[in-house]
Design brief:
The protein has no helices and 10 strands. The chain is mainly β. It has one domain: Immunoglobulin-like (Sandwich). The strands form 2 sheets. Strands 2, 3, 4, 6, 7 and 9 form a 6-stranded antiparallel β-sheet that branches. A 4-stranded antiparallel β-sheet has the order 5-1-10-8, with no helix packed on it. The chain is globular and about 40 Å long.
Length: about 110
Amino acid sequence: MHSLKLISLQCHVSDESDLDEIYLKHDGNKIWPQNEKYKRIDPGSVSLNVSIPDAQKDSILEIELWDYDTLSRNDKLGNFSLQLDEYGKYQTELKRHGNTPASYSLEWEYY
């Protein structure tokens, strides 16, 4: 079986001026952070260490990036489309949703 590991998330530009409260989803389920509602992110890199087992070769896997909001609905900032056609380590840029200024990239490995 093939596996996918999400290594790190890099914030280049945050969506909000007071930092983003980020979480990741896959197939409608929150996958990161595991023991918190969200992780406060400032520009820079944060380690993820998330494994997704049984990732099908020659498929596209979608990881959604969300911003947690206390007083309103959470905002989907965009998604990362991971092309699982070759083994190796990659970096994918966020495909932004709506008119967010957010700029993120995801480092991941398929093996």
